[in-house]
## 1
Amino acid sequence: MPLVFVPTPLGNLRDITIRALDTLRDCDLLVAEDTRVAARLLAGLALPRKPMRSYREQNATLVTAAILDAARTGLVAVTTDAGTPAISDPGSQLVAAARAAGIAIDVLPGPCAAIGAIALSGFDSARFSFEGFAPRSTSARRLAFRRALDSGVPSIWYEAPHRFTAALRDLALESPGARIFFLREYTKMHEEQRLQTAEELLASLPDTLKGEIAFVIEPPPKAPKAAATTDELDSAILYHFSQGLSAAQTAKRLSVQGMGERRAIYARAHILRERESP
């Protein structure tokens, strides 16, 4: 029987999927980060109570073997307090242990604040990174933000409300004009969305924040690379000629390296070739 990871609603119970309902209804054991939260979820969805076992970072080593034993003979559903298990929540180690033990695993699609945040941001989402919770210390946090800003792709972060202002202050020091999409209490009654620069967001937020926070950082546009000078271009062309490359091959390679437009380099290469010819 499989070990099934079941995403649960972040706030709105209507976000539960039919497959999730089926799994929670039919499972023989429900593994939950907090069994009290899981009991309230079952009650809210009008599902019968289930045998439960807690699985969290602090007790993972102690309970993993028993969970895997249960999955060998019955259907085991795994949840976290909200969202998708193993995404900034306990679960990844359990997946690895189940694979090592030859136990089938399934992960149902469902609620995930990170995906909602990048979609709502309107930033280019062809590529993005998910960074999870920001580091606790200022120095490590600033380094993480600096690397994210330099990556060239949007980055998605989670943060606790009591640490968000400090994190935002560090981000503003690294890039005050960086655009931030701020998402608080996603899918819940008091959901809040803001799209501002780091400085604007820092100045406009209340002193005390409550609720779950996800935010997306848009990297600043990269400054265009300065065009090569004529002397630099000529030196590069002559070097490639010395390596046996043709004018066409040289133009293609140097254009990729950002030294100019391919046709212009090709024309310059022909001029230099004629000059060098006896």
## 2
Amino acid sequence: MSEEIEFLDYIYQNAKMGQESIGRLLKTRNKKDEIEDVAKEQLNDYKKIANSAKAMIERRKKKVKELDVISKVATYMSVKMNLAKDDGPKEVANMLIKGSNMGITQIKKHLEEYKLKNKNVINLANRLLTIEEKNIENLKKFI
């Protein structure tokens, strides 16, 4: 598998994990407040990135690797446990910031690791990085 496909798979998996986590968070929490609006915006951003990565993979005649069941279950349990203690805006913001910080670290690591030449792939990675950074900025007001 080429580095380009591996990298696109990584971007796709990262965005899908963001979608999965926020989707679970919204279902588990089930409250209408300002942080829910911020989370829904993040969810939409992740969907756009995942769709772009998927399209780029499929244009290369490769199959997209979906999130495995273990990752989904682990995400569900983590969200459930964290929200059982406190599901207020501050706790939700802290959870989402933690996830975005992990995403930033991983994206930067992958950008350094992979020597990509395709500008579209690099741009998609940078879009995801920008989204993660924006997520943190949008959540700071809740802490």
